[in-house]
Amino acid sequence: MALEDKDLIIEALLFASPEPLTQKKVNIVFENDPPNLEAVSNRLSMQYIEQGKSFEIQNVAGGYQLRTKPAYDTYVRRLLNKTGQLHLSQAALEVLSIVAYKQPISRVDIEAIRGVDCVGVIKTLLKKSLIKIKGRDEAPGRPLMYMTTEAFLQAFGLIRLSELPKLKEISELMEEQPVLTDQIDAFK
Q1: pTM, entire model
Q2: Burial 42-53 (b: 16+ CB within 10 A, else e)
Q3: In this structure, how many other beta carbons lie within 10 angstroms of the beta carbon of residue 60?
Q4: Domain limits of the chain?
Q5: What does the pLDDT profile of the chain (188 residues) look like in tens digits?
Q6: What is the CATH number of domain 92-159?
């Protein structure tokens, strides 16, 4: 099979895959002599840049995925908002950010930071597969511990959790908005 054919197959897989495409998945698709996903993704990325395409290949959550360039974000959001894409409430975003920065963390600890009951929000985040149960804490009552998932990384375009902005960086950005400072202090 010619190199161009393999590149076209990888491009089709990137287009069709609902989650990031990994080398392991490519190895399954190509029974003999699978191409190197990273090398093909780099070649395709260069072609897209040269051709001025509205999309690009990004390394996300341990794999590669076709993504719309940020310049077209507004239009894609309009489309998705019209098609019933589910959104997260402010409470869900707050709980999700607490879990992302403090994981693994129990519901009691989340509620101590937020100051309100979080049972319903946690259930919602579990249903959307943005968080998962990691296990139980050794504390009295052995509460469940929560952590983020690969779906969380994918939804936010991250390769790994270390790409999250540091709390100090967020604090510096928010200095001009003192109302939000109390919310940031709760994460420290």
Answers
A1: 0.56
A2: ebbeeebeeeee
A3: 20
A4: 3-73, 92-159
A5: 666 788 999 999 999 888 899 999 999 998 888 999 999 999 999 999 999 999 999 998 889 999 888 898 888 877 776 654 557 888 899 999 999 999 999 999 999 999 888 998 999 999 989 999 999 999 888 999 999 999 898 888 888 898 888 877 777 777 756 555 455 555 55
A6: 1.10.10.10
